[in-house]
Design goal:
single chain, mainly alpha, two-stranded parallel ribbon, 8 helices, about 10% strand
Length: about 190
Amino acid sequence: MEGYKYAADIDSITKAEDVIKSYVYLTPVMSPAVLNSFAGKSLFFKDEKSGNHAAALSLAAKIRGIPAYVVVPNNAPIYEVENIKRYGGQVIFSETSMKSREETATKVSLERGAVIIPSSNDARIISGQGTLSLEFLEIIGENNSKSCCSTWFNCNLKYLITISHCFKNLNIVDCDDVINQITYNWPT
């Protein structure tokens, strides 16, 4: 939409990359030959894991010498909880609903004088998350980035902003089509 201002744009994403690049752990990009042969095209998968925001927040607070109180649902995977602790965050459990997480975060904020940093729905966080796509493009190179799978990006605008800015002739491919192609060609 012309004239519409998004929470993040390519400038905010590249600025975020400059700020965080010395702290970023580069995760691998894989292109499995078997899936490529069944799909009839090169597929790329970036090995990102859930819980990165909480771990990064914990590490950032540790580097600054301040506490990080991280509210996580009580059914969070143990590796996420351990990562938060490993990076110095203090885990505070809530119920699994968004309402419970928000109420718990507000209570912690008021009791401890902490600032709430949401895992999404914040322009700074969205810009930081958008750096993932810059990293992805740097790894796979321009020749391999003419089409991207929309599900890989979780249909999140933050990734598409970066990708579409870097590659004007980008073809966004529905992953269902790719999955159907793989399934159709899978040996029985």
